[in-house]
């Protein structure tokens, strides 16, 4: 399993619609609207690097209103063992 965090700058008038469109993409498990340097954060979970490239370049980046993305690939995932995480 490959996990990545995609930081997204978006047009302000498209943030809500983009958040919904993001979670409808295969490979995107969650989307958050956030404050700070970016407007949205997408959590991507896929099996292989090629899938990550497809999700980001052919999925996320193609959505109307995306200004810029920055992708952070996770080396290792640390989580609370008591928390019930679901990965699809």
Q: Could you say what the CATH architecture is?
A: 2-Layer Sandwich
Estimate nothing, just give the exact number of structural domains.
1
CATH C-level class is Alpha Beta
Give the class from helix and strand content and strand pairing. alpha+beta
**Principal-axes shape call:** globular
Low-pLDDT windows of residues: none
Per CATH, the superfamily is Lrp/AsnC effector binding domain/regulation of amino acid metabolism (RAM) domain
Output mean pLDDT.
92
Strand order of the largest sheet: 2-3-1-4
Within the CATH hierarchy, at the fold level, what is the topology? Alpha-Beta Plaits
Following the backbone from N to C, one meets helices and strands in this order, namely: EHEEHE
Largest sheet geometry? 4 strands, antiparallel
Tally of helical segments: 2
> How many runs of DSSP E, i.e. beta strands?
4
Helix and strand layout, with pairings?
Blueprint lengths: L1 E9 L4 H9 L4 E6 L6 E7 L2 H11 L6 E8 L15
Antiparallel strand pairs: 1-3, 1-4, 2-3
Which key features would you list for this structure?
4-stranded antiparallel beta sheet, 2 helices, 23% helix, 4 strands, 88 residues, Alpha-Beta Plaits, alpha+beta, globular
């Amino acid at each position: 399993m490959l996990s990545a965090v995609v930081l997204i700058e978006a047009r302000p008038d498209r943030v809500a619609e983009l958040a919904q469109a993001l979670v409808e993409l295969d490979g995107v498990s969650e989307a958050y609207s956030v404050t700070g340097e970016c407007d949205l954060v997408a959590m991507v979970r896929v099996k292989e690097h090629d899938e990550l490239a497809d999700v980001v370049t052919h999925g996320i980046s193609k959505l109307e209103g995306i200004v810029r993305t920055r992708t952070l690939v996770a080396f290792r995932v640390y989580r609370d063992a008591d928390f019930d995480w679901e990965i699809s």
